[in-house]
Design a protein that fits this description.
- By secondary structure, this protein is mainly beta.
- The protein folds into two domains: 196 residues, Jelly Rolls; 97 residues, Jelly Rolls (Sandwich), CATH 2.60.120.
- Helices cover 11% and strands 36% of the residues.
- The strands form five sheets. The chain has a seven-stranded mixed β-sheet with strand order 1-22-19-24-18-16-17. The protein has a seven-stranded mixed β-sheet with strand order 3-2-4-11-6-9-15.
- The longest helix is centred in the middle third of the chain and has 9 residues.
- It starts with a helix and ends in an 11-residue tail after the last strand.
Length: 321
């Protein structure tokens, strides 16, 4: 594959195109400074303004959220897996319908495989603009977002209405629901009762892994973070591996499904037959199936990278041991 072909499959951090109207809380004070990015796949944006960098189906989606300090993402649910790792900043993740059932603080490089069927939100509690990278299960990312009822009601007070078709309508722009389209119905008490509300210990122990712990594990070889044999045992339709200088190899390998390389620390050289490229933190590289390639740090110093590989498992969290 030529360097030109591969360059079309690399999204540089500095070239990411944000959308500030991606979701229903885009006008809600405290959430109105969010920037949403769809890097690979269709994403879950409710806005036609969302730019998609790479539209090639991978079996999963790659996205990101950028937020200034004290900006939060409102309580929502997904039907398939949602995995975040912290690229920059300090972040608080919380869950429960009102966001008061539990919380965890994550630092750069930490990863969180958020369980399905729980309301979750997050906020940047650092002192600078922060970025979290996201992996979402399935090519259609589970058919969109399920919002907690109060989020929909708050948004309406600030001019945004979500239609039952999953699209946003902004009264501040003179928009209204089209004829025949009703507002998105609020979840009933019976439906809310079916949403899980796990304890803090269950979530942190089962679904959170710390960057420094994974760095230590990498000294002993490959680290499968999420997978049937991973340190987070789950089968959400993709696997996640953790690479450092200690376990990276120049020996080329290939996968029978698309994969994605996402550096979190240091610069990485990716080689394949026909070319090479340097990736920096925040860059995202899509590697085609069956393309032999290798990835190793290109400079001295700290280096770490996440690798995402599609699997044949159904999109969504299926089990955890």
């Amino acid at each position: 594959m030529t360097p030109q072909d591969m360059n079309a499959r690399i999204v540089r951090y500095g070239e990411l195109q944000p959308c500030k109207t991606a979701f229903i809380d885009a006008h809600t004070p405290g959430s109105n400074q969010k920037e949403n990015f769809t890097i690979i796949g269709g994403g879950v944006s409710e806005s036609p303004d969302q730019h998609v960098h790479i539209t090639i189906p991978h079996g999963f989606n790659i996205g990101a959220a950028g937020q200034p300090p004290k900006c939060r993402n409102s309580m929502h649910n997904h039907r398939t897996a949602e995995v975040f790792f912290i690229l920059s900043g300090r972040w608080r993740f919380f869950w429960g319908e009102k966001g008061d059932a539990g919380e965890v603080i994550l630092e750069e490089g930490d990863i969180f495989n958020i369980p399905t069927n729980i309301f979750r939100g997050f906020e940047n509690i650092g002192t600078d603009y922060g970025m979290i990278m996201a992996i979402l299960g399935g090519d259609d990312a589970g058919g969109g977002v399920i919002w907690a009822p109060h989020v929909i009601e708050d948004a309406k007070d600030h001019g945004l209405i979500l239609g039952e078709n999953g699209k946003l309508y902004d009264s501040k722009k003179g928009e209204s629901l089209p004829e025949g389209v009703n507002p998105m119905p609020l979840l009933t008490k019976e439906e809310l009762a079916k949403v899980d509300c796990p304890t803090t210990s269950d979530v942190i122990g089962g679904y959170v892994r710390r960057y420094l712990d994974m760095v230590a594990l990498a000294n002993d070889g490959a680290v499968k973070v999420i997978g049937e044999t991973g340190i987070i045992r789950d089968k959400p339709g993709f696997e996640v591996d953790f690479l450092t200088r200690a376990n990276a190899t120049e020996e080329k390998h290939a996968h029978d499904k698309p994969s994605v390389l996402m550096p979190v620390k240091g610069h990485w050289r990716v080689d394949w037959e026909g070319g090479s490229a340097i990736l920096a933190p925040g860059d995202t590289m899509s590697v085609p199936e069956n393309l032999a390639h290798s990835a190793v740090p290109s400079m001295t110093g700290e280096a770490a990278m996440y690798q995402v590989i599609a699997t044949d498992d159904p999109a969504g969290q299926t089990w955890q041991g």
